[in-house]
Write a structure and sequence with these properties.
GO terms for molecular function: 2 iron, 2 sulfur cluster binding; metal ion binding. Its cofactor is [2Fe-2S] cluster. Keywords: 2Fe-2S, Electron transport, Iron, Iron-sulfur, Metal-binding, Transport. The chain is mainly β. Helix content is 7%, strand content 37%. It has a single domain (3-85), classed as Ubiquitin-like (UB roll) (Roll), CATH 3.10.20.30. Strands 2-1-8-4-6 form a 5-stranded mixed sheet, with helices on one face. Strands 3-9 form a two-stranded antiparallel sheet. The radius of gyration is 12 Å and the shape is globular.
């Protein structure tokens, strides 16, 4: 497992290069918007400001420079920007 640095709206966390970004953000206590988790709805889209990802095929429309966090795995350190302020959720005791 390769460690990568994920910066989201200026907040930096440590991630890995084998899980989708959406899962990693949730594990870190962030709550990005999503609906389908399979690349159809586009609710989890964000701007990839820096770095590279492996993004699986998706049906949602994306503008240049945008990715779907549910379909993207980081290949390097990445910087992401969401158009909204991410909510931080409290972690359960078992997490």
């Amino acid at each position: 497992m390769n460690r990568v640095q994920i910066t989201v709206n200026g907040q930096t966390l440590v991630g890995n290069s084998h899980q989708h970004l959406l899962e990693q953000l949730e594990h870190a206590g962030l709550a990005p918007e999503y609906q389908c988790r399979n690349g159809v709805c586009g609710a989890c889209r964000c701007k990839l400001d820096n770095g590279s990802v492996d993004q699986k095929d998706a049906m949602a429309y994306l503008s240049a420079g945008e990715i779907l966090t549910c379909q993207s795995t980081p290949l390097s350190d990445v910087e992401l920007t969401f158009d909204y302020q991410l909510v931080t959720r409290a972690k359960a005791v078992n997490e």
